[in-house]
């Protein structure tokens, strides 16, 4: 089935995803194969969904009818042996509906046929090693590294756009980062996206012996704790600098969710419609500079990039962030999880949440605005809609804080902010309060 890309809300610009059978490339680090080793596509359900596209009232059907692109796929390679025979007819159907697609792939079978079907699209092509022997150990049934550079050439020659995913990135797998970037750019890549290796405990428990040997104990340990070895920082900045020197579209969305990140703009150049990511807001704040930001700043940045007028069961966008977060997020804001919501409500939920990943509260240059009352109590400052304010200040990267008290924190625009709050309080007073005493 093609689903709304629930788990990637505010992270991935493409809002729909098609997952299929377990990917036969069998990369030893594949989070999807480790999570669900035996998954299988319900082909009948997929074809039914596509046949009845105009009769369905699901979020996915509505987004498809609005011609948002479909990512194929975050969890499988569409050109792996286990999937390409499904990929090609599905591409034909989507083309018939004029629904665009975006590929995430290491190449394989049926690429030439796919190029005859689809309009110019974005190809996210993964390259994360430089040694063919290592590639064979880590990605035993995948394609050769050389064939991936050929894939970049083949698709760009036909007018498609390529983002190279260095995913997952491990310094030992890429001893010469400058060369890797130069080789990709020479082949035609225009954008890079970088993401670290990370594992949960359950995923580690599912790594087969062959995978453990290929990865090595030390790499698994670091990935499990979300840590990096000592050489990572220098190596990462070499990689990022090499990419940024040649291209403007580069970044590491999940490893450094506090730096400006422009790679997502690349999607807006390829597709008419994409979803916003948290980086649209972060980049806007970096461009405007340190100061106090309100829910209207967030809403006015994000909402124009989301479909308006939707009301439906949006709980999956939150539930997929882990049940614990979902329950907390709803209780934080005293919302009924069963109530129908629109994207406006999701934006409010994210802005106001201390627990949801990718909320401003989770990004280092942001801190909630508080003030100290004459009683000595510290309280969060809310706007007229009970939404908190955040200070955005890159200086907070050096000393991250959850909250800053405006009585002791210097940031641009404080005086104007106090005037605005005072005006709002005055406007809220009943009319008689404003009349002079007789
Ligand atoms: S190509 Fe992607 S989806 Fe397939 S096994 Fe490798 S990491 Fe997983």
Which descriptors would you attach to this protein?
seven-stranded mixed beta sheet, 2 domains, 39% helix, binds iron/sulfur cluster, single chain, five-stranded mixed beta sheet, TIM Barrel, disordered C terminus
Description:
The chain is of the alpha/beta class and 438 residues long. It has two domains: 2-270, Aldolase class I (TIM Barrel), CATH 3.20.20.70; 278-428, no CATH class. It is built from 19 helices and twelve strands. It has a seven-stranded mixed sheet. The radius of gyration is 24 Å and the shape is globular. The termini are far apart. Iron/sulfur cluster (SF4) binds next to helix 1.
Shape label? globular
Class from secondary-structure proportions: alpha/beta
Per CATH, what is the topology of the largest domain? TIM Barrel
CATH architecture annotation of the largest domain: Alpha-Beta Barrel
**N-to-C span:** 71 Å
Low-confidence stretches: 433-438
- List each distinct ligand once: iron/sulfur cluster
Beta fraction of the residues? 5-15%
* Topology, number of strands: 12
How many structural units, i.e. domains?
Answer: 2
CATH class of the largest domain: Alpha Beta
Rg, rounded, reads 24 Å
């Amino acid at each position: 089935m093609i689903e709304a890309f629930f788990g990637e809300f505010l992270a991935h610009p493409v809002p729909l995803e098609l997952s299929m059978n377990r990917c036969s490339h069998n990369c030893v680090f594949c989070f999807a194969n480790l999570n669900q080793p035996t998954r299988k596509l319900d082909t009948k359900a997929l074809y039914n969904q596509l046949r009845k596209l105009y009769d369905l009232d699901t979020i996915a059907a509505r987004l498809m009818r609005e011609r948002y692109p479909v990512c194929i796929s975050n969890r499988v390679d569409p050109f792996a042996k286990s999937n390409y025979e499904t990929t090609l007819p599905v591409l034909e159907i989507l083309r018939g509906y004029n629904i665009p697609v975006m590929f995430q792939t290491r190449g394989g079978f049926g690429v030439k046929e796919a190029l005859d079907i689809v309009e110019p699209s974005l190809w996210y092509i993964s390259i994360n090693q430089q040694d063919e022997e290592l590639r064979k150990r880590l990605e035993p049934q995948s394609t050769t590294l050389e064939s991936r550079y050929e894939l970049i050439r083949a698709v760009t020659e036909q007018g498609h756009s390529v983002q190279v995913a260095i995913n997952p990135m491990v310094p030992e797998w890429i001893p010469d980062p400058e060369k890797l970037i130069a080789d990709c750019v020479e082949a035609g890549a225009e954008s890079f996206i970088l993401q670290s290796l990370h594992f949960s405990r359950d995923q580690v428990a599912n790594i087969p012996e062959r995978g453990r040997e290929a990865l090595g104990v030390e790499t698994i340990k670091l990935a499990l704790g979300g840590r990096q070895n000592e050489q990572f920082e220098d190596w990462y900045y070499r990689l990022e600098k090499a990419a940024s020197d040649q291209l403007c579209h580069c970044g590491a969305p999940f490893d450094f969710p506090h730096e400006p990140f422009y790679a997502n703009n690349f999607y807006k150049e390829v597709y008419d419609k994409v979803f916003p990511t948290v980086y649209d807001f972060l980049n806007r704040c970096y461009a405007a500079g340190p100061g106090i930001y309100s829910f209207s700043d967030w809403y006015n940045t994000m909402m124009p990039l989301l479909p308006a007028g939707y009301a439906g069961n949006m709980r999956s966008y939150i539930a997929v962030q882990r049940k614990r977060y979902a329950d907390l997020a709803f209780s934080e804001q005293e919302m009924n999880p069963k109530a129908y919501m629109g994207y406006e409500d999701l934006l409010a939920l994210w802005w106001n949440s201390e627990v949801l990943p990718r909320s401003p509260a989770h990004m280092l240059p942001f801190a909630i605005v508080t003030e100290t009352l004459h009683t000595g109590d510290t309280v969060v400052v809310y706007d007229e809609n009970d939404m908190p304010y955040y200070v955005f200040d890159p200086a907070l990267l050096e000393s991250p804080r959850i909250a800053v008290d405006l009585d002791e924190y210097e940031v641009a625009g404080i005086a104007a902010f106090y005037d605005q709050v005072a005006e709002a309080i005055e406007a809220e007073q009943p009319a008689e309060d404003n009349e002079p005493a007789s």
